[in-house]
Amino acid sequence: MKIELAENYGFCFGVKRAIKIAEENRSSATYGPLIHNAKEIDRLKKDFQVALTENLDDFKAGDTAVIRTHGIPKQELEMLYARDVNVVDATCPYVTKPQQICEEMSEQGYDIVIFGDEAHPEIRGVKSYAKHGAYVVMSVEELEQIRFKEKIAVVAQTTRKVEEFLKIVNYLIPRYKEVRVFNTICNATFENQDAVRDLSKRADVMIIIGGKNSSNTKQLQSIAQEYCPDSYHIEGPDDIDDSWFIGKEYCGISAGASTPDWIIQQVIERIKKRH
User: What is the pLDDT of residues 82-141, one digit of tens each?
Assistant: First the structure.
């Protein structure tokens, strides 16, 4: 069995930065999962006593709260500061950028369109910075139901496919007088998606490693499946099914931006040992 890793995969700049911040703040707590990888969160708890809480009220004056890479709603951030909590912001700079754009453009009277998943924590945070609200859409069909003003500003969830973002933009531009487009899809997303696209064209089985609730990992899986129907999304070596490799000769591997190297190596060793 030939095994090949994608040219670009795994931890992105924002995740590496957040992990380092968490490790430097022992005995703190993250508000919401720091990243979308339960195994890495468990490691931080075990080795660095970095707890996880989903409840804002758990933080009292003097506590240290590490803000997740996806960011949090502006109002919640202000509440933490108002309670004299020691806030350590690990929000990825690529996420901070659309937050700033939404705030500035809404102040200037633009309707805000966010291309992304409204249920995703990143988008809940970004939307909160639009002072007069924002429209969160996933498709052109959703746009067709909305009447906008003449001025629109458009941003994207950092981990979406650029091809899908272009569909949104190409619908809006001919229909409205002024459309300001901000490409907020991060570079690591582009690079990882291009790499998995290239590898899945050659492989006859693809393994994509990452949290089940990781948006960027799901995007990698979707791209891989376009070119290699036998593509599987796993969180770690225990999820591997040996039947996937029967009659296969070339295994491609990629991983989401929140997947640590130690999990990737465990998966590779498991495949090597069995096949």
Answer: 999 999 999 999 999 999 999 999 999 999 999 999 999 999 999 999 999 999 999 999
Q: Based on the number of CB atoms within 10 Å of its own CB, is 164 exposed (0-12), middle (13-18) or buried (19 or more)?
A: middle
Active site residues: 122
Residue type present at position 215: S
Q: Parallel, antiparallel, or unpaired for β 178-181 and 111-115?
A: unpaired
Alpha carbons 185 and 183: distance in angstroms, whole number: 6
Q: Which residues contact 106 (CB under 8 A, 6 or more apart)?
A: 112, 129, 130, 131, 132, 134, 153
Please name the helix (run of DSSP H) or strand (run of DSSP E) that holds residue 247, with its range, or none: none
What is the three-class DSSP state of 102?
helix
What is the pTM (predicted TM-score) of this model? Answer: 0.86
Q: How far is CA 243 from CA 44, 53, 206, 229, 275, in A?
A: 33, 38, 13, 15, 11
